[in-house]
Amino acid sequence: MENGLKKAIQAAGNKSKLARKLDLTKGYISRWDAIPLKWVKRVSEVTGLPAEQLHPDFQIVTPDRR
Q1: CATH: 2.40.360, 1.10.260, 1.20.1260, 3.30.2010. Which one for 3-54?
Q2: Which end of the chain has a smaller Cβ tally under 10 Å, C or N?
Q3: Is the pLDDT of residue 2 over 70?
Q4: Within a 10 A sphere around the Cβ of 36, how many other Cβ atoms?
């Protein structure tokens, strides 16, 4: 299990609680080796963990303010 997924599960309490918070089944989450990019933002919202900690490829892009 990838480190970010482990952190998310710990923050939620367990896999079942994380699944409930995401409106997913525990079985669906159990198939994840890492949090899929499309789920990183939502997992961040429900766990309170920064998205960058949940997946190494996730970066928040902000517009260049000139």
Answers
A1: 1.10.260
A2: C
A3: no
A4: 12
